[in-house]
Design brief:
512 residues; alpha/beta; Rossmann fold; five-stranded parallel beta sheet; elongated
């Protein structure tokens, strides 16, 4: 008997329908074709044990299983459940009437219980698009898939429940969650707050400007000045995720297997902080089995690179294109996938190997050659893509000992949200652009043109600091954001002056 069961394969952050065709006939052999990987080929043993432990027997027939389309490589143990159901249906142990109405995914334990799998959110979205009646999957994944409306999601513990369901012996209850209620309830849960930061007012202002316009930021200062501490608090002042952004972010983390069990939508912007020993593939994605890298896991959030010069130069250079295009294309001989990479880059670094170059109190032990060699680890083109460059100095004792709380993250966040609303209205007719950091030349001429006095001030700065054309654009973008924070329709000279002040690394003897 020939039956068809439906599952899905992941390609990038999207899913493709996989039709599992099972044909049972006379004989005792088992064939599995359709470009399965080793873990799928091993499913025979897992299915045999699972059926035996739940009171069923693996059919004593010749079984031919084809996973179509045959030219797409199938990976992972998530096909155990649809394979098992297809084999039982082909051997007439299960009624085949309803099988074609449901998508199925799940890894089988030897005792028949279902283990959670990754990538269920894009699969659920694809199941709804293809008009499936429901999606059967492990119970731990049910809440994640249930955020997709107009699709019945059935979380099950054991393969026996699925068999009895298709035989009409029991009814499965769909998982229902209030997506909006859960999403909005978790939007303001942060572990860190700016009210705990003493001093560093100029740095906090720079971070506010960066978050208001989606600008990249680098902090340069000695050890213990608070670079990492401040960076960890940036998500608390970023605008909250929209539902569409949350869905896109959750898809990426689902595909990468980063979602915890019984979780639904990601409600807080991601903050990724990889170690400087990270490889190029781990940063941008790819590998033998394509996976999103750190720049994609930070999509719609923050990618924090602590001790920037310590990262391998190749790792930093491969980020140049994603910083501009907000996506990364992984091309290999057998596949090509696109991953979104719309992240906000926050970096920190010491000014020299010892960390105390031009420190107000401690002497630097590095030679000028060592200092220059250390700074040259970060290329000029990469620094040009960082809009805001700020020097940070240690906080004096008087401010550290001050018990009065600083301005809270909530107050700063409200100003950032208001500035972002202005930008949303400004770019309402521009496809794919929602903040000032994304403005290209045409939009700069339209929305960020300074007056005569501002142009004169900008010309002097360009000549004195020997800035590149890209730096010129960055200054105008930042100035536009500063004006938005003041709800000013025009860029004023003081806005340009502040924006120029955020190009610290372009100055001669900038650490002084």
């Amino acid at each position: 008997m020939l039956v068809k069961v439906y599952a899905a394969a992941l390609q990038g952050v999207n899913a493709t329908i996989i039709t599992i065709e099972v044909n049972c006939s006379k004989g005792v052999r088992f064939f599995l074709v359709g470009l399965p990987d080793a873990s799928i080929k091993e499913s025979h043993e897992r299915i045999t044990s699972a059926l035996s432990e739940t009171g069923y027997k693996f059919p004593r027939k010749q079984i031919l299983v084809n996973m179509a389309p045959a030219d797409i490589r199938k990976e992972g143990a998530a096909y155990d459940l649809p394979l098992a159901i297809g084999i039982l249906a082909g051997a007439e142990k299960i009624k085949p009437d309803k099988i074609g109405d449901y998508m199925m995914m799940g890894e089988l334990s030897l005792d028949g219980t279902l283990k959670p799998v990754k990538g269920v959110l894009p699969i659920a979205i694809k199941a709804r698009e293809e008009k499936f009646k429901g999606f059967i999957l492990p119970k731990e994944n049910a809440k994640e898939a249930a955020v997709v409306n107009n699709l019945d999601v059935f979380g099950v513990d054991n393969i026996k429940e699925v068999i009895r369901f298709f035989n009409g012996e029991i009814e499965l209850q769909p998982t229902i969650i209030n997506t909006r209620e859960e999403f909005f309830a978790n939007q303001s849960s942060f572990s860190w707050d700016f009210s705990e930061v003493k001093g560093q007012e100029n740095v906090k202002r720079a971070m506010e400007v960066a978050c208001a316009g989606g600008h990249n930021l680098i902090l340069v200062g000695p050890p213990g000045a608070g670079k990492s501490m401040l960076a960890k608090r940036i998500p608390s002042i970023l605008p909250p995720l929209t539902l569409s952004e949350s869905l896109e972010t959750t898809k990426i983390h689902s595909v990468a297997g980063k979602m915890s069990n019984n979780s639904s939508l990601i409600a807080v912007r991601p903050f990724r902080s990889p170690h400087h020993s990270i490889s190029t593939v781990a940063m941008v994605g790819g590998g033998s089995y394509p996976q999103p890298g750190e720049i994609s896991l930070a999509h719609n959030g923050v990618l924090f690179l602590d001790e920037l010069p310590e990262f391998p130069r190749l790792v930093l250079e491969v980020m140049r294109q994603p910083l501009e295009d907000r996506k990364i294309t992984i091309s290999r001989a057998k596949y090509a996938v696109d991953y979104p990479a719309g992240f906000m880059l926050i970096a920190s670094m010491n000014p020299c190997p010892c960390g105390y170059y031009n420190h107000p109190e401690r002497a630097c032990v590095c030679s000028s050659v060592q200092v220059q060699k250390y700074l040259n680890r970060v290329s000029g083109p990469l620094l040009d893509r960082i809009d805001i460059q700020v020097e940070i100095v240690p906080v004096p004792f008087e401010k550290i000992s001050d018990v009065r709380p600083s301005e809270s993250s909530e107050a700063v966040r409200n100003r950032v949200i208001q500035a972002r609303k202005i930008q949303e209205e400004r770019f309402a007719d521009e496809d794919g652009i929602y903040c000032n950091a994304q403005m290209h030349t045409r939009l700069l001429h339209k929305h960020a043109q300074p007056d005569a006095e501002g142009l004169s001030r900008l010309k002097n700065a360009m000549e004195k600091l020997n800035l590149s054309a890209r730096a010129y654009d960055r200054i105008l973008r930042v100035a536009r954001t500063i004006a938005d924070l003041e709800a000013s329709p025009n860029i004023k000279p003081n806005h340009l002056a502040e924006a120029i002040g955020y190009r610290n690394l372009d100055r001669e003897n900038w650490a002084g």
